[in-house]
Design a protein that fits this description.
Oligomer: single chain
Largest sheet: 7 strands, mixed
Length: 123
């Protein structure tokens, strides 16, 4: 049984930093693209960033380039999202998703999801 579990969300002031973690079990982690999505209240879920097992990175949102960095530790079955220079518009529920293929920005392309971790950025 595949499980995906996120952690690391919280409340932070604008300009601050957070690091999200996502650990997946029950799958061959090396074979999976791992993505971060987010959903703000009243908005559709959107892809943020993805990392393929080769190390290739895909950004789905231009506004996070230079501020958010995805990384993964295949030995720990864990993917991270380091978020710096946070802005109030980054406030959302952040989800981790796994896909046994290359990166995709479509949420319906991912069969495995975590429960989400809330990130709130105050002005």
């Amino acid at each position: 049984q595949v499980q995906v579990v996120e952690s690391g969300g919280g409340l932070v002031q604008a300009g601050g930093s957070l690091r999200l973690s996502c650990t997946a079990s029950g799958l061959r982690f090396d074979d999976y693209a791992m993505s971060w999505f987010r959903q703000a209240p009243g908005k559709k879920r959107e892809g943020v960033e993805c990392m393929w097992s080769s190390g290739d990175i895909t950004y789905f949102i231009g506004s996070v380039k230079g501020r958010f960095t995805i990384s993964r530790d295949n030995a720990k079955n864990t993917v991270y999202l380091q978020m710096n220079s946070l802005k109030p518009e980054d406030t959302a529920m952040y989800y981790c998703a796994a896909r046994n293929a290359d990166c995709s920005g479509r949420d319906d392309a991912y069969p495995y999801w975590g429960q989400g971790t809330q990130v709130t950025v105050s002005p």
